[in-house]
Amino acid sequence: MKGRLMIDLANLPEEGKEFAGELPKEIFDLPEGDAQPVGPLEYEVWAQRFGSELLLTGVLTAPFEFTCVRTLHPFVQTIRLENAAVSIEIEREGEIDATDAMREEVLINFPVDPRCEEGDVPQKCEIDSRYLSVDKSAEDELPTPPRAESDDRWSALDILKDLKDQP
To answer: What is the pLDDT of residues 26-42, one digit of tens each?
Structure first.
């Protein structure tokens, strides 16, 4: 199958074997509005069987375009896993497709809060002061949301707390 890493268990030596190459960026299939791959998933892994497990260890890299959480600007950051270890359970003999397992290993290593200062080409990462309420001037023309004077929902919780304290 083209565009997949297929490992034939029957031809895998007991001491293991090296696999290197790249998989097309389409394997990531991420929803619109999420980070998007801008290049292939490159791999250089050692595959070895241990009983009912196939273990892949090595290097995985893939570049993605993220949106900075501070500036909301797009930037490219390469996810590089130098010591990746991917375990695949062997359910049946024959060929094992390792593509999805390697894809998932890259995805779980996405940055939680991507910032453009951490991209492949670091950028200045500052929040536009117009969006900071502390530094907000009166003439910035951005609306200020109204603040509620009191919220009766919290007082209902206080009543429950008082009931708990009764004998």
So the answer is: 999 999 989 999 999 99
Domain assignment present for 115: yes
Q: Is residue 136 part of a domain?
A: no
Q: Are 84 and 108 in contact (CB under 8 A)?
A: no
Question: What one-character DSSP code corresponds to residue 157?
Answer: H
Handedness of CA 34, 43, 40, 11 (dihedral sign): negative
In a domain, 166, yes or no: no
Which domain covers residue 55, as residue numbers? 6-130
| Number of domains into which the chain is organized | 1
In a domain, 142, yes or no: no
Beta bridge partners of 62: 79
pLDDT of 100 over the 70 cut: yes
| Distance in Å from the first CA to the final CA of the chain | 71
pTM: 0.73
Rounded distance between C-alpha atoms, residue 66 and residue 41, angstroms: 16
